[in-house]
Structures are given as C-alpha cells and as structure tokens.
Amino acid sequence: MAKEVEVAQPGALIARDYKDPPPEPLFNVDELTKWSFYRALIAEFVASVLFLYVGTLTIIGYKNQSDPTNTSDPCNGVGLLGVAWAFGGMIFVLVYCIAGISGGHLNPAVTFGMFLARKMSLIRALSYMVAQCLGCICGVGLAKGFQTAYFDRYGGGANLVAPGYTKGTALGAEIIGTFVLVYTIFAATDPKRSARDSHVPVLAPLPIGFAVFVISLATIPIDGTGINPARSFGAAVIYNNDKVWDEHWIFWVGPFVGAGIAAFYHQFILRAGAVKALGSFRSMGSFRSNPHN
User: Fold this and answer.
1) What DSSP character marks residue 19?
2) Are 104 and 47 in contact (CB under 8 A)?
C-alpha cells in the first residue's frame, strides 16, 4: 500500500505512515441531523453524572470519616490519596467506555482544547459543554439526595481556595494542571502515535486517568482540584454558597487558559502545524511558478 507523502522542506519528500484527520469546519450544521451527534451528547451527559456522583460521595465520605468530632484518628478514611484515586480512576473507566462514542471528554476545557485544534466544530463543542455541565449538576444533585446532611455539612465537594493560598496561586494551579491533562490527551490520541503503536488506542484512557490522579494530588490542598469547569460548576450550583461563587471564575478561566496553551503547544510546536502549513504554501508557490517541473 502506498504511503502518504509529507513535504518537510521545499524539494524534500518524506514518506509517513499515518494520516492526520482533516480539520473540522467551524460550523457543521449537518451534525444536527445525525443520531451519532445526539448519542455522543447522551454519552457525555451520563458519564458526567457518574463522574460527579462518585467523586462527590468520595469527598463527603472522606471528610466525614476524618472529622475530629467522629474519630480521634486523623488518618481515618480514604484520605486525599483515595480522593485523587477516585477522580482519576473514574476518568480512566469512563473515557474507556465512551471514547469510541464521543471522544470521552467529560470536561469543557478538554472540549475547548479540541475545538482550538480543529478536531470538532463549534456546534459540537458548545453542545458537549452544555451536556457536561448538566450532567455534573445532576451528578452532584444525586449525591446530595443520598447524603443530604453530610453534603451540607462538608461543603458538597465544591471548589474553594484553601486558607493560606491566594486566588493567584489557585489560578496558576488550575492553568498548569489543565495544561498537563489536555497535553496528555493530545499525546495519547495523536494519530501519529496510534499508527505506529497499535496498543496505544487501547491504553489511551490510562495515562489520561493517571494525569487526573497526579494533578489531584498536587492541587487538592490548594483548591480542591478543579481542572474541569463542569465539575466545579455542578458542585457550585447544588451547594450554592456565596464564597464558592465569588471564587468560581478561577475554575473557568484557569482550565480554559491551560487547555488553550496545551492545544497551541501540541499542534504548533510538537506537531509543527505552522511549519507544515508554511512548507505546503511554499511548495504550492514553487509549483505554480514552475508548472512544468
């Protein structure tokens, strides 16, 4: 089978064994007529419900088990390590389940990064974000329904800047944490890697879930770990606390900035998108000036 040819420099041809998917159009109205579009939205919604339900109950359970009024053992309960495992583990499981249906975003920041990389249309991106936010609201609401007393007592898993940290520190943590997550997703789903390592598509959810785990370990003490605006929004809506809302902007601005930086870094630096475009432009110009070569 013939290999596709990539122009690296004017006059230099390099065969490549992978094919980049074409960029998605900014507006793709045809998507609205396809069942696969709505199936993807349902998958994102249900996965977001499950993600926040398990995550919120884990946080509430940990705070209840380690509450000094309930126990004299400060190490009682799953601890921060267990909370981080719950979030990272659920991302691993859910991405594995729905990656083939919707891509397994579960996160508006991830969706934003994919949109900037032209991997999805604006219509699909906005629809995903709505589904994710609604799913997270329902997930936290479901957790509150099962644990109403504990939910109100222990903050409902809402994101807040911890005492001793500033909003600037939390914002920086959200930017860096989301950059690590979205960069990991780009790397794990890169068509160039998938073509050369047949096992990568199967294992892609593993590094993504593990990225959430290690980021959580670093940022739970700072702000409870956001890196997902829908996760923060769902908890804020159900818990509905003034301080939570005052600091809520951090958990939208930080993740979107981090995702944007990751998309630019992967697409234009590592994958040399700008260089390839320039090379193609120069090659086309050379062909037009010498059509008989």
Assistant:
1) -
2) yes
Q: Is 14 helix (H, G, I), strand (E, B) or coil?
A: strand
Single-letter amino acid code for the residue at 101: I
Residue 266 DSSP symbol: I
In angstroms, the CA 185 to CA 215 distance is 14
Residue with tokens 């697409």: 267
> What tokens appear for 53 in the block?
């339900």
- For residue 192, what are its two tokens? 């160039």
pTM score, two decimals? 0.85
Q: Which residue has the tokens 């398990």?
A: 54
Residue found under tokens 């936010």:
133
Instruction: Pick the closest to residue 27 from 125, 130, 123, 126 (CA basis).
Output: 123
Contact by Cβ (8 Å): 133, 142: no
Q: What are phi and psi of 118, to 5 degrees?
A: 65, 35
Predicted pLDDT at 272: 72
Q: Which helix (H) or strand (E) holds 5?
A: strand 4-9
Element (DSSP H or E) covering residue 7: strand 4-9
Return the ∠ at Cα 232 (arms to 123 and 171), rounded to 5°: 100
Residue type, 238: I
Please, where are the H alpha helices in the chain? 35-65, 79-102, 108-116, 122-146, 148-153, 167-188, 191-196, 200-203, 205-223, 229-239, 242-246, 250-264, 273-289
258 burial (CB, 10 Å; 0-12 / 13-18 / 19+) is buried
Three-state DSSP at 289 gives: helix
Query: Tens of pLDDT along 104-127?
Result: 999 999 999 999 999 999 999 999
